[in-house]
Amino acid sequence: MNLHLTGHHLEVTPALRDYVQGKLTRISNHFDHVIDIKVTFSVEKLAQKVEATLHVPGNDLHAESSDDNMYSAIDTLADKLDRQVVKHKEKISNHHKINGALKHQQAAE
Fold first, then answer.
1. Which residues pair with 18 in a beta bridge?
2. pTM
3. CB of 88 within 8 A of CB of 56?
4. Does 29 map to a domain?
5. Is residue 45 in some structural domain?
6. pLDDT over threshold 80, residue 109
7. Could you give the 3-state DSSP secondary structure of residue 76?
8. Are 62 and 51 spatial neighbours (Cβ–Cβ below 8 Å)?
């Protein structure tokens, strides 16, 4: 998993980097096939904004969060991304087994 952090009107400190890495490990626990994560921090007047794009096989997941505190914005962003990853994982898993249902199996004679 590659993690790219950028800041607009904000310097990305090691404390922010460590906090984001800690929060995004939960996503990699749910889904191992995350290729790339791009996180952008920005400050607009009083609002602290965080945006993230996850590149997973077959899809790109995007979420953004805004709050007065940067750390609480990162928390809500991690929750949003976690829900999206779990939903994506459920979509790609095949719930229909081949010849698993009784109607598809041949009767034993």
1. none
2. 0.80
3. yes
4. yes
5. yes
6. no
7. helix
8. yes
